[in-house]
């Protein structure tokens, strides 16, 4: 029986030493091999810790350049004014906020806003405005009409010009008493 026990101890000790040798070999391999994560672990790690790939956004084109801006009582078919004025009567009929804009793009929305100048700039009185869509690219005159029917009080006003929601020009205008003559630049 003692022989059997000695034989079992001998076999077990041999297994233990082989196991120690295998562990040493594994440790040496791990120390000299660069870390590699494979399969599902790699996918999980990449999804969990890697930054998402950013898609660059297109840079919006610059707003058009304002070459000239003014108020006119009449315009040509091209939108070009027949002279500029700085004041008109409150009942002058149709007047135009005109601008020579370079770099317009077809589909852009050009709009105007007219405001009565008040002491509190945060609460300006909106007096009117209108908008249209540009049909062709390039440099062109735009003429945005405003009807003055005598319903607005006399005083100083601001006309603002926007292209695609961005202000590109503003202009000070004086509305004078009914029946008065326009005053040129």
Describe what you observe in this structure.
Keywords: Signal. Residues 1-20 form the signal peptide. This is DUF4352 domain-containing protein. This protein has 185 residues and is α+β, with helices and mostly antiparallel strands. It folds into two domains: 2-49; 65-184, Immunoglobulin-like (Sandwich). Helix content is 23%, strand content 39%. The chain is built from two helices and ten strands; from the N terminus they run H-H-E-E-E-E-E-E-E-E-E-E. It has helices at residues 2-32, 39-49, and strands spanning 65-72, 85-89, 93-104, 109-116, 125-128, 131-133, 138-148, 155-163, 166-176, 183-184. The strands form two sheets. Strands 2, 4, 5, 6, 8, 9 and 10 form a seven-stranded mixed beta sheet that branches. The model has no long low-confidence stretch (mean pLDDT 81).
């Amino acid at each position: 029986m003692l022989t059997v026990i000695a034989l079992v101890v001998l076999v077990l000790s041999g297994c233990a030493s082989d196991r120690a040798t295998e562990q040493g070999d594994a440790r040496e391999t791990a120390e000299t091999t660069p870390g590699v994560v494979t399969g599902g672990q790699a996918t999980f790690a990449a999804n969990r810790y890697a930054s998402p790939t950013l898609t660059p956004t297109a840079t919006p084109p610059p707003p058009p350049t304002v070459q000239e801006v003014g108020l006119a009582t009449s315009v040509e078919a091209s939108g070009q004014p027949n002279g500029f004025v700085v004041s008109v009567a409150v009942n002058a009929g149709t007047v135009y906020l005109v601008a020579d804009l370079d770099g317009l793009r077809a589909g852009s929305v050009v709009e105007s806003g007219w405001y009565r100048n008040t002491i509190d700039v945060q609460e300006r009185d909106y007096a009117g405005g209108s908008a249209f869509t540009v049909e062709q690219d390039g440099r062109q005159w735009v003429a945005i009409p405003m009807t003055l029917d005598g319903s607005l009080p006399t005083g100083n006003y601001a006309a603002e010009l926007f292209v695609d929601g961005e202000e590109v020009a503003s202009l000070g205008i004086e509305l004078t008493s009914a029946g008065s003559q326009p005053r040129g630049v």
